[in-house]
Design a protein that fits this description.
176 residues, mainly alpha
Length: 176
């Protein structure tokens, strides 16, 4: 191999490497922009989701009407935090919006279900699982710089359905 051929081979290798770098940098740029979009929202969402579930669980255990109204007001404040962050997360974390809407309803559902302790504890158990799935999904999406995949969206949808089903099980039946 002559020096001219060696130079040509080196130039071809450099050209291929630069084209591949451009191709893969395109994906890295998308991941970086998604991370930058999610960064200010993830902590706010995690705090709001945890706060709604935590205050709702204390709300169910409140013994006096005064404690109940105090904890219900706290749960409503946590729900308002979730209501402000949910529209900002709708498109970056496509598919978990349904779970966030279910958790927004949790304080009202728990106040209705608190007379039936088994139903209330079942509702809180499923809401806690939903909260965990949302937290894990948001963290994975932030780390990977991506949107939720189909499995994560289905998990959120399934646990949302479980919460709604537990709540509607105790709903009064309309006369026929």
């Amino acid at each position: 191999m002559t020096t001219q051929e060696a130079t040509l081979v080196a130039a071809v290798i450099a050209a291929i490497a630069s084209v591949l770098k451009l191709f893969f940098d395109r994906f890295a740029e998308g991941r970086t922009s998604t991370r930058q979009l999610l960064q200010p929202l993830i902590a706010e969402m995690g705090e709001a989701v945890y706060g709604v579930v935590a205050t709702s669980s204390v709300l169910v255990e409140a013994e006096t009407p005064k404690k109940f109204s105090s904890w219900y007001a706290k749960a409503c404040r946590e729900r308002e935090k979730l209501q402000t962050v949910r529209p900002k997360l709708r498109y970056p974390l496509w598919g978990i919006d349904e779970g966030l809407r279910v958790l927004q309803r949790l304080p009202d559902w728990c106040s209705h279900a608190r007379a039936d302790k088994t139903r209330a504890s079942e509702l809180l158990k499923h809401a806690s699982r939903l909260r965990h799935i949302i937290d894990v999904t948001a963290l994975r999406c932030y780390r990977g710089g991506r949107q939720p995949n189909i499995v994560e969206r289905l998990q959120v949808r399934y646990h949302s359905w479980r919460c709604r089903r537990v709540f509607s099980k105790g709903a009064p039946k309309l006369p026929q």
